[in-house]
Amino acid sequence: MKQIQLGSSGLTVSAQGLGCMGMSTTYGPSDEQESLATLARARELGITLFDTAEVYGPFSNEKLLGKAFASTRDRVVLATKVGFKFDAAGALEMVAGRPVVSGKPAHIQAAVEGCLQRLGTDYIDLLYLHRIDPSTPIEETIAALAALVKQGKIRYIGLSEASPVTIRKAHAVHPVSAVQIEYSLFERGVEHNQVLATTRELGIGFVSYSPLGRGFLSGALNDLSSLASTDFRRFDPRFQGENLRINLRLVDGITKIAAAKGVTPSQLAIAWTQQAGTVPIPGTRRVKYLEENAAAADLILTEEELQALNDIAPFGAAAGERYAPAMMETLGH
């Protein structure tokens, strides 16, 4: 897989990364040996960017990656995220059903130390603020991260789910190398809220998480009956009732375009995010789907195909919010 520059800060990554969250949480039970085999195969395919976070598990996903890359640390780009708060027992702190976010320097510094320990490394290639704390000036948080860059504990700084105003304020303190936000044929909000335009203006790389719409765009998910009881999609607004029926019609249209091109819906959706100038990080824990996704790295869509996809899946076509109301409140600060 080709390697590209993520933004203009000097960070080189594979054209497609691997989202590792599902190996430890969110989508039901997983198997560690299967996950390790998938991570090893990703390296063989030339994938170098691996995305995790302290909250995935919590903590177990970072430990998994630390184990997987203990002997190949210098050949991978490890991206992790901090910002959520945990109680003394290691559980996510919640208030009124909403996870508690902290951008206070002391919290961020302690969180980074935990990430380093779990990843089994003395530096993090790309450290994101997972969510923005509206009660702490972003300038203070970024200054704390900049100090960690000077100490060699972080190489590059990123933001996740940040507004254009926050991106600009952060970038003025220290160069922001990447912004990570959900982006797909299913979710095109960043095209209309100035986030994508802001990153391009400032030379910041854009990383698309959930490029397959939480698996929806694979075309394989028609109802919720096959999902594990702990799979969060059972409670995702876009998978409920009338929203599900509307969104399945959207997927049907995408599937027809994929069939005409001789590729899978997943490959078509991933290629679309790449051609939009972003680095997608589709998540999977199985080698079969990893290989299918990776094959999209060199796929080029024609102008006619791009127009057809725009006609079928324009901004706002998907029914339902991205998350439940409490989680929606953590976005876009």
Automatic annotation (TrEMBL):
Q: Which SUPFAM superfamilies match?
A: NAD(P)-linked oxidoreductase
The Swiss-Prot or TrEMBL record annotates one GO molecular function as: oxidoreductase activity
* InterPro entries (alphabetical): Aldo-Keto_reductase (IPR050791), NAD(P)_OxRdtase_dom_sf (IPR036812), NADP_OxRdtase_dom (IPR023210)
Q: What is any one of the record's Gene Ontology cellular component terms?
A: cytoplasm
UniProt cross-references to Pfam families, sorted A to Z = Aldo_ket_red (PF00248)
Tell me which UniProt keywords the record has, alphabetically: Oxidoreductase
Q: Does the keyword tRNA processing apply?
A: no
Q: Which Gene3D superfamilies match?
A: NADP-dependent oxidoreductase domain (3.20.20.100)
All copies of the NADP-dependent oxidoreductase domain together span 17-312
Q: What is this protein called?
A: Aldo/keto reductase
State the organism named in the record. Answer: Paramixta manurensis
